[in-house]
Specification:
This protein has 9 helices and 14 strands. By secondary structure, it is an alpha/beta fold.
């Protein structure tokens, strides 16, 4: 597969290309110029021009001051990918550490994919503590457990993360793009579940990228109560579509979470969780 076969989209929020870890590391990994669609969710417009060149990137820029989230940004990118007749859509966030290994693995894909492949993913490790993040098995109750797997086709029910994931444009068209009910959180889990339910395949690259998940260590400092509320609502929406057993396990997870969050300095967290728990019980 040629890098030119991919349509690159990066979503920015209160960050620019100059300070993006993703852009800095891709600069060092790419050996040619590429086209990049920049969807900017920042409150203020950061670039005057809609088309310009930055380093190795031919930029097409779109500013969304309403901060509509990821699904709208990705659907916009999908429309452009279709217009450009691109076969694959590469999703990027602003804080991923990419490697030359990742780019090389993509370029060696040509004979490894089959017609059922809907997604291509790298291995993802945490940048701060070397924890494995992706691929991860999707278990009951929305639980994800990272696992080791060799390069190749994965047919089991798994999930990954948005940044670094490559999705087949024709498949995305067949499912009418990204589900706009998931504006940010759980969107990746949604489309990976959709891929599995549609009996499509995921291909795991023999490459590792890194993502900053310090939020796992300092949740109360890293995630505001309102941001947590948004995450919680997305979880609730995702689990509503799951089996009865999955819903029971999710309820138990919420109870456990309430008990832990009562020890937080800010009591808003456990109040939000408690509210979702009651709402979930009464559904």
């Amino acid at each position: 597969m040629k890098i030119e076969d991919l349509f690159f989209v990066i979503v920015l929020y209160k960050n620019n290309l100059e300070n993006s870890r993703t852009i800095k590391t891709l600069e060092n990994s790419l050996n040619k110029n590429i086209n990049l669609f920049v969807y900017d969710n920042s409150p203020e417009r950061q670039y005057k021009e809609e088309e310009f060149v930055y380093s190795k990137f031919n930029i097409k820029y779109f500013h969304d001051p309403l901060n509509s989230g990821l699904s709208k940004a990705y659907n916009h990118a999908l429309e452009l990918a279709v217009y450009n007749k691109s076969s694959w859509l590469l999703l990027l966030d602003q804080d991923t550490y990419f490697t030359k290994e990742y780019i090389d693995s993509i370029e060696m894909l040509e004979d490894k994919l089959n017609n059922s492949t809907a997604a291509i993913i790298p291995r993802v490790d945490s940048l701060t503590n070397n924890l494995k993040i992706s691929p991860a098995k999707i278990l009951l109750g929305g639980i994800c457990r990272p696992f080791e797997c060799q390069e190749g086709i994965i047919k089991s029910k798994i999930s990954g993360i948005n940044s670094g994931t490559i999705l087949k444009v024709d498949y995305l068209k067949s499912i009418n793009g990204f589900n706009t009910n998931y504006t940010l959180d759980m969107l990746d889990h949604w489309y990976f579940k959709k891929i599995y339910n549609d009996k499509k395949d995921v291909f795991l690259l023999d490459a590792v990228i890194n993502q900053d998940l310090s939020v796992l260590e300092n949740f109360e400092d890293a995630v505001s109560p309102q941001r947590y509320k948004q995450m919680l609502n997305a979880e609730y929406l995702f689990i509503k579509e799951e089996s009865f057993a999955s819903k029971v396990i999710f309820k138990l997870r919420l109870i456990s979470r309430v008990l832990k969050q009562r020890k937080f300095r800010n009591k808003e967290y456990y109040k939000f969780t408690l509210k979702i728990l009651f709402r979930y019980t009464n559904d």
